[in-house]
Amino acid sequence: MENIILQKATVENIPELLAIEEKLTNLKTYSAMTTAKEWQDEFDNKNVTIYLVLKDKDIVGNVSYEKKPDGAAYISGLGLYPEFQGQGIGRKVIELIMEDLKDVKTIKLATHPENSKAIKIYLSFGFVIKAWKDNYFGDGEPRIEMVKENL
Q1: Is 62 in contact with 51 (CB distance < 8 Å)?
Q2: What pLDDT does residue 147 have?
């Protein structure tokens, strides 16, 4: 695997984040954040951590999570440029995020039920499917909620 690292994003990276999300906009399995305001709101939330995913110093995606007041964490987004999908990068990103969140008792996320590759990766990291929610993000598409308990 090439050198995959997570670099903490800043508000100055909003154009790069928008460029990634724009490539994922019309996928029914992904709810993209397509406005600068959405990203600014994320950066304004001090409980949210946003990373750029770098492969050999090139930006290939982004990942973010929010630490909730109850001590849980919610992986709120993981998007890779389509040309970098299917190369094991997403698995490596989840591995790095799991290390970041190793002290968090409960980790939650939502993914589209047709995103079988992502579901398989999450299951391999110990996530379990907890619920099915119709119209989860208001985009008309269902999502499954997955949870990992760090005991």
Answers
A1: yes
A2: 97
Give how many domains the chain has, as a whole number. 1
Q: What is the dihedral of CA 33, 34, 36, 42, to 10 degrees?
A: 0
Q: 50: which 2 tokens?
A: 């946003």
Strands, sheet with 58-67, edge to edge from the N-terminal-most edge strand: 4-8, 48-55, 58-67, 73-80, 106-111, 143-149, 128-133
Q: Which residue has the tokens 């399995």?
A: 29
Residue 51: beta bridge partners? 8, 63
Domain of residue 67, residue span: 4-149
Please report the pLDDT score of residue 2 as a whole number. Answer: 63
pTM of the entire structure? 0.91
Q: Which CATH number do you get for residue 94? A: 3.40.630.30
Whether 62 shows a pLDDT value over 90: the answer reads yes
SS3 44: helix
The amino acid occupying position 18 is: L
Assigned token pair, 36: 């600068």
Q: What token pair was written down for 98?
A: 């799991």
Token digits of residue 105 = 């008792």
